[in-house]
């Protein structure tokens, strides 16, 4: 090869190395801003915003935000929520738990282990924060599913929200005989 050819090869390699270091620098900066847990930093993203459906153990469908394979081989579900402040609700845990049951039923993931926890990625004006949450068992998810459909079909009466603030944003507020007004106290409802 001529000197000119060697020079071109050296320039191409140098350019590629510069691009690679910039990319790594951008990823490092993103990871720092993201405050991602170490266990996820080293994990492999295997699904992102993909619709899944199943009929067994119950009919479910959903679109998990991210599914990661940890270095241990276990899969973990991450769901993003935009909030004014950092807050984790039972509904969030129910959703991530349902995603896990949904994914466990997929032939693609059937023989893989899933973590007993998931993460909520909470995006707030103060930044991003990951909250690790213990997930419900598949039996609890199935029970929730059955309760939901029993209520939808009018075969059971809703228990009502524990706090008035939960009623404020509820889509069933107009037809619920137990809905509490925003002006009512935030004290919990009495035990049933």
From TrEMBL:
<protein>
    <recommendedName>
        <fullName>PD-(D/E)XK endonuclease-like domain-containing protein</fullName>
    </recommendedName>
</protein>
<keyword id="KW-0812">Transmembrane</keyword>
<dbReference type="Pfam" id="PF12705">
    <property type="entry name" value="PDDEXK_1"/>
</dbReference>
<dbReference type="InterPro" id="IPR011604">
    <property type="entry name" value="PDDEXK-like_dom_sf"/>
</dbReference>
<keyword id="KW-1133">Transmembrane helix</keyword>
<dbReference type="InterPro" id="IPR038726">
    <property type="entry name" value="PDDEXK_AddAB-type"/>
</dbReference>
<feature type="domain" description="PD-(D/E)XK endonuclease-like">
    <location>
        <begin position="22"/>
        <end position="176"/>
    </location>
</feature>
<feature type="transmembrane region" description="Helical">
    <location>
        <begin position="6"/>
        <end position="23"/>
    </location>
</feature>
<keyword id="KW-0472">Membrane</keyword>
């Amino acid at each position: 090869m001529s000197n000119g050819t060697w020079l071109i090869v050296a320039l191409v390699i140098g350019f590629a190395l510069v691009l690679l270091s910039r990319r790594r620098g951008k990823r490092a900066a993103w990871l720092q801003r993201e405050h991602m847990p170490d266990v996820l930093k080293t994990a492999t993203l295997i699904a992102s915003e993909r619709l899944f459906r199943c009929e067994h153990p119950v009919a479910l469908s959903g679109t998990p935000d991210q599914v990661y394979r940890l270095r241990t081989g276990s899969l973990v579900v991450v769901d993003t929520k935009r909030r004014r402040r950092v807050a984790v609700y039972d509904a969030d845990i129910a959703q991530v738990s349902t995603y896990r049951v949904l994914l466990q039923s997929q032939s693609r993931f059937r023989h893989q282990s899933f973590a007993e926890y998931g993460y909520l990625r909470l995006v707030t004006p103060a930044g991003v924060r990951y909250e690790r949450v213990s997930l419900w068992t598949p039996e609890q998810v199935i029970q929730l599913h059955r309760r939901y459909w029993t209520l939808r079909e009018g075969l059971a009466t809703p228990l009502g929200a524990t706090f008035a603030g939960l009623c404020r944003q509820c889509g069933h507020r107009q037809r619920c005989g137990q809905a509490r007004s925003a002006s009512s106290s935030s004290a919990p409802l009495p035990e049933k």
